[in-house]
Amino acid sequence: VVIHTQGLSKAYDEVQALKPLDLSVPRHSIFGFLGPNGAGKTTAMKLLLGLIHPTAGSGSIFGQDIMRDSVAIRSRIGYLPQQPRFVDDMSARETLRFTARFFFSGPQAKIEARVNEMLKLVGLQDKADRPVKGFSGGERQRLGLALAQVNYPELLILDEPAAALDPIGRHEVLQVMERLRAHTTIFYSTHILDDVQQVSDTVAILNHGELLAQGPIEQLLSGSDGPVYTLALKGDTSRTLARIGALPWVSGIDTCACGPSAGVAARNGFVTWQVGVSDERAAEAHLLRQVLADESLTVVEFSHKRYQLEEVFMDIVEGGNRGR
Question: Which parts of the chain fold into alpha helices (H)?
Answer without folding.
Answer: 41-48, 70-74, 92-100, 108-121, 137-149, 167-180, 193-199, 217-221, 238-245, 280-292, 309-322
